[in-house]
Write a structure and sequence with these properties.
The chain has about 90 residues and is of the alpha+beta class. The chain has one domain. The protein is about 20% helix and about 35% strand. Strands 1, 2, 3, 4, 5 and 6 form a 6-stranded mixed β-sheet that branches. The chain is globular and about 35 Å long. The chain starts with 8 loop residues before the first strand and ends in an 8-residue tail after the last strand.
Length: about 90
């Protein structure tokens, strides 16, 4: 008998920092991951897992293009995430 791991698809939103000290870096938000109140799960290449104030970061980020987020998407898939890319926070589906 083999053991199978249940793979759950998670929504992910990719944004690009516009701050001068992080310009061009991509951050991934996981709107369905539990975090502290008002926060969502987040992941960056440098720093990796954490949590973030999604609405606050909208002011200092912009939507990432598929070309910009492709390397981070690949990294996330390599660590085991099964993802569905969405453009904005909304209802879970």
């Amino acid at each position: 008998m083999t053991t199978q791991t249940l793979q759950i698809t998670q929504r992910v939103i990719f944004r690009v920092w516009t701050r001068a000290d992080a310009r061009g870096d991509v951050i991934a938000f996981f709107p369905d991951q539990e975090a502290n109140p008002g926060m969502v799960g987040a992941y960056e290449h440098i720093g990796q897992h954490g949590e973030a104030d999604y609405y606050g970061l909208l002011k200092v980020t912009r939507p990432a293009t598929p070309e910009e987020y492709a390397p981070l998407l690949k990294e996330l898939k390599n660590v085991g995430y099964v993802l569905r890319v969405v453009r904005r926070l909304g209802r879970a589906s």
